[in-house]
Amino acid sequence: MAAPKQPVVPVIVGATAVGKTAVALELKNYWPIVVISADSRQVYRQLDIGTAKPTRAEQRLVRHLGIDLIEPGERYSAGRFATDAVAWLADIPGTEQPVVVGGTGFYVRALADGLFREPPLDSTRRDWLRSWTRNREGLGRWASRLDPGFAGGGKQRAARVVEVALLTGRPLSWWQRDAKERGVMRPWYVLLTAPRPVLYKRIEVRVDRMLQMGLVAEVEDLLGAGLKPDAPGLDAVGYREVVQHLIGNLANNVLAASIAQSTRRYAKRQDTWFRHQLGTTNVVTLDSTEPAAMLAQQIVRLWEEQETG
């Protein structure tokens, strides 16, 4: 028996600060949409300012899924996201249009291409290994040695590579290549881009706004409540710089510039990933220097054309 046909779902992607949320909110004027957030930082409760999470008012305008799922300090993987998103997609009624929005490429890939079948991991050995990797220096070098396919990334990703390799006897890249399951949807990508000078200016403005909104106090409250400075969530761009500031390693007069620099580097990695990983099929590239309302109008028109084409 043939597998059931996967639904085609619009997926709005692009670098941080390129304007994805604004465009998604404008789509509500055309469709009764539900946004599935594919953002590895917005899954954390209490991390609101530094993740540029949609405001409460924006979430009242458009229902969002994939936001505020776990507490800071917990781990959340692309595999878990894919599992959760399967349930979210199934529960969205036919009268509503799901739209995936986010900048975390591995989350998007999990929905579109499928992820590897999670190998069974001994819980006792896994917990011990996680405590061993938590403050381990040079974790990226360990990951590269254990998995030649490791392409770099943050501390959490390197720890995951080490964990899978040591506990299963096979590198993570093998599982991702040879034990992959089918994706849960067929993506219709909308890649938002902007010239580097424009994007970098938007990043500077966003960083200044985050600091004015109380980003430092947000982190200070979490540390005061007992969260460790290197806990998952606080290791993200923006948060880790504020942590360094609060423990005395980063002066206040260079905090904004440091966050902006890290965010520019992150945006460049995102942009590179999307340009090379999405392919050329079912991808529409739009210039996000256009107003969000105009971009939403273009998206709806192009969607209708591909639906009837």
Instruction: Using the coordinates shown, work out and report the CATH topology of the largest domain.
Output: Rossmann fold
Biggest beta sheet summary: 6 strands, parallel
- State mean pLDDT (0 to 100 scale): 89
- Rg value: 20 Å
Distance between the termini: 27 Å
Helix coverage percent of residues? 40-55%
CATH architecture of the largest domain: 3-Layer(aba) Sandwich
CATH class of the largest domain: Alpha Beta
Q: Which of globular, elongated, flat, extended, rod-shaped describes the shape?
A: globular
Order of helices and strands: EHEHEHEHHHHHEHHHHEH
Instruction: Kindly estimate the percentage of residues that lie in beta strands according to DSSP.
Output: 5-15%
Domain unit count: 2
Question: How would you concisely characterize the structure shown here?
Answer:
The protein is of the alpha/beta class. The chain contains 13 helices and 6 strands.
